[in-house]
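Example 3.2
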Amino acid sequence: MSIRSRVDPFTLLLLATVGLASLLPVSGRAASAMDVVTNVAIAALFFLHGARLSREAIVAGALHWRLHLTILGCTFVLFPLLGLLGRPLSGWLLTPELYVGLLFLCALPSTVQSSIAFTSMAGGNVPAAVCSASLSSLVGVALTPLLMALLVGGEGAMAHPFEAVAKIMLLLLLPFVAGHLLRPRVGEWVERHRPVLRWTDQGTILLVVYTAFSASVVEGLWRETPVWTLVAVSVVCAVLLAIAMPLIAWIARLLGFDRADRIAIVFCGSKKSLATGLPMAKLMFASGGLGAIVLPVMIFHQIQLIVCAVVARRYAQQDAAQTG
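Structure, written as tokens:
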């Protein structure tokens, strides 16, 4: 487990995909065809997410409204405020595109699978985490582009927000709802093939990364983004998580939640979804700046996996010591 937390195979695949896009970027008609393939893969991904979520899980967690409101507040209020505090970094430590990417990161919904996995590992409230993380993803479909319209303002990196919402509804929300409605027919098959479908999730992310970076490389991403800037993005993402996680834990304790609920709040409220973020970015932003905009999301994703694995183990050790 300790080795896996340090060297995640998917991290290596992401780096390899970025390298492939840098050396062999797709362009022209091939890029248009790749866009179609990627859009189909995105729709299929969210169809499968909808088919995985049981009606019982929705009902079981839906009544815990204080916990859900707290997680939504951390995800869509606290993080955007922290992102705005980083505005002095734009044009100094971060390029304007990378700062837009930082704001986009802060406006994203929570992850689903890893939030639930870490909550379970730490001994937290798993049913509530399932419902809250799923609710965050659904709310984020509409709220993230609207938040970006407020955060970015007139900087012009984002497409028209209502057009972005319509595209996201078509490619993300409608397949998700269709998958959930068809769960009685396909749910058993999805559960039987869950290990295989994990590769569907990751494969879709890799497709989005390849097409995004190909477009950005063609537009001159690496000519305009020095290496020290990438180091700066990594440091900024690490500091953002270092501020957010203890602050969220303090908020949960201040509001009087028990230990199991606090664990769910910490992991669901501090995570940002790469699986949702990259497809949304593809629909929301101009392709030329997309590679730089998604960089903070990709880097933050790797940092949060490593940090949350360590924190979850500490929670589990504390629980074992108390029960022992």
